[in-house]
Design goal:
By secondary structure, the protein is mainly alpha-helical. The chain is built from 13 helices and six strands. It has a three-stranded parallel beta sheet with strand order 1-2-3, with helices on one face. This is CoA transferase.
Amino acid sequence: LDLKTSEGVGLIKQLVRISDVVVDNFSPGVMERFTLEYDDLKKIKPDIIKISFPGVGREGPFSDVVTYGPSLAGLAGLDSLIGYEGERVLGMQQAYADINAALFGAFAIQMGLYHRERFGEGQHIEVAQLEALLSTMPEPVIEAGLNKRIFGTVGNVNPIMPVHNNYPCQGDDKWVSIAILTDTEWKGFCKAIGDPPWTQKEDFADSDKRSLNRKELDKLICKWTADKTPNEVMEILQKARVAAAPCADTEDRYFDPHFQE
């Protein structure tokens, strides 16, 4: 539909009459120029639900900024966390903001429909994609606000999981992801790899000590995974109920029997 023509706008308004929800992914002001703002749509269907996805919101100094998913990741500060630990920023390399905002919008629409069912009225819902993306980063926001500490690139480091990384395996650029949170998982991991002497070191006696000595621990785990394929590591550790999975590339995903099924 060409919304620059009266015919195109007219067809949209005909669709609104038989619709429950109107989704607007334009920059602020565009729908107003087409006379398709919420107040315009209410005249056509009083209980219509309209949801808008402005990049940063309909108000404020950046309200008219033009964005795509990757630019929102930069503006929200998400990109500043993505990169090898302590090294330069690499960024998300994907439009995560688009996916994230869509999930927020899906739930918001459900609530709008529920509200209409109970009270008989529609509403205009705004999901600012920047705000939705900020909600995925509570730790950096809280640290900056309360402790004046700015997170940098963190790699795969997790603040509460001492083992949380991708480890090299046999083969060309093959890796396995391993994550261990609890002492039970740690004991299962140690037993699965044969209880080598280094697992009994005082430096790794509890979760706090393992976190403090994470880099040394990662090096030791790398030595264990290096002569095994990702699938071999997964099979060994999954039997011990330890979260381990190959870092699959496109070819791996295509030929994986689970994905094929």
